[in-house]
Specification:
Number of strands: 12
Largest sheet: 7 strands, parallel
Distance between the termini: 45 Å
Structural class: alpha/beta
CATH class of the largest domain: Alpha Beta
Mean pLDDT: 96
Bound molecules: NADP nicotinamide-adenine-dinucleotide phosphate
Low-confidence stretches: none
Number of domains: 2
CATH topology of the largest domain: Rossmann fold
Strand order of the largest sheet: 3-2-1-4-5-6-10
Radius of gyration: 20 Å
Helix content: 40-55%
Number of helices: 14
């Protein structure tokens, strides 16, 4: 069994995902140090140490990482220019494990790797692998691939039903399954990866996980059952069924003119496009090996209910089960 990881440096510790990772690591008994931007004003809770550094300064980062067993990153829009410095510093500080800020759907198929939305993440993964291989270091890496963030997508209406607008949109028929994950479940996966029981088996590879396997049609049906909203159907024209290839073609045209308004189309391509790897999430999943939960319909309905309440669509009195 691997030597236990105790001290974890966490970048992005005050962000949407990072907050959950920070809490889960702390609860699991790890000693977390938040590595914050020098000018950050985001507070960390008492009991969590914070070191503020210039993230583009390798020497400062190396000093901050000294004595740490693992570096976990949850920074937004990770780009090679900054992430390579973090990787070099973590290797120089001889940490045992680096978890980069990936948290995407699939970076392992030739088709997904060329999507503009993950171009920088692919560069960072490639850099991480080659830096570790060429340094003769004992440092290892693991990336977490979790599919779309479930709470965020449900709130934004990105996976079929838009609860707030009481409308639904399908892509390529709406029957394709996607593996979507909640932020606490992603954080639980990070904890498991750093657990001595799983540290060796998760070294130098991507770990795929998901909280729920869901299609846009099923999520719409469940959302209707929970909220009572009639989303209609494709046949009547109330629900649009969009063709992803066409969406991407339009996005490409826009992008060529510097217009990024079609950017989100690429996420649908990665989730549902044939050969992009989104469809492989169950085959690739580590859920069972790591002992991660998989949501059933009751769990999904509970998340829909709390989201609808948060959006003000459901109040205590009109919530059905
Ligand atoms: N799969 C999905 O559906 C999905 C959805 C959203 C995000 N993600 C991915 O999840 C990861 C984390 O994203 P997130 O949305 O949780 O991040 P976020 O909420 O924007 O978190 C940002 C935190 O990172 C730190 N930070 C470091 N560099 C920063 C910079 N240049 N600008 C702003 N903040 C910076 C800040 O902490 P301090 O102030 O403490 O330094 C901030 O609190 C990213 O890899 C992102 O691509 C995936």
């Amino acid at each position: 069994m691997a030597i236990p990881i105790r001290n974890v440096a966490l970048l992005g510790a005050t962000g949407a995902l990072g907050t959950h990772i920070r809490n889960a690591l702390t609860q699991a008994g790890f000693v977390v140090t938040a590595i914050q931007r020098k000018d950050s004003t985001n507070p960390v809770p008492s009991g969590v140490k914070s070191i503020k550094v210039e993230l583009s300064n390798k020497d400062d980062l190396t000093s901050a990482f000294k004595g740490q067993d693992a570096v976990v990153s949850a920074v937004p829009n990770p780009a090679l220019a900054t992430e390579s410095i973090m990787i070099d510093a973590a290797i120089a500080a001889a940490v045992k494990r680096i978890i980069p800020s990936e948290y995407s759907t699939n970076l392992d198929t030739p088709l997904s790797r060329q999507l503009p939305i993950v171009k920088e993440k692919v560069k960072v993964r490639d850099y991480l692998q080659s830096a570790i291989a060429s340094n003769g270091t004992s440092t290892t890496w693991t990336s977490v691939n979790n599919g779309p963030f479930f709470e965020m997508c449900l709130k934004a209406g990105a996976l079929g039903p838009n609860i707030k607008d009481k409308k639904a949109v399908f892509h390529n028929g709406g029957n394709n399954l996607v593996g979507t994950s909640t932020l606490p479940d992603i954080a639980a996966a990070v904890v498991k990866i750093l657990d001595p029981a799983h540290l060796d088996e998760t070294a130098n590879k991507p770990v795929y996980m998901y909280s729920a396997a869901i299609s846009e049609r099923l999520l719409t049906k469940l959302a209707s059952e929970v909220t009572g909203i009639d989303f209609g159907d494709v046949e009547s024209g109330k629900i649009l069924d969009l063709d992803i290839d066409q969406m991407v073609a339009e996005a490409e045209e826009k992008l060529a003119k510097g217009d990024r308004s079609g950017w989100f189309s690429y996420y649908y391509q990665m989730m549902y496009g044939k050969g992009y790897g989104g469809e492989d999430f169950q085959k690739l999943s580590w859920n069972e090996r790591l002992g991660l939960r998989t949501m059933d319909e009751a769990d999904i309905k509970e998340l829909i209910r709390s989201t609808a309440q948060e959006l003000g669509v459901l109040t205590g009195s009109n919530a059905s089960s």
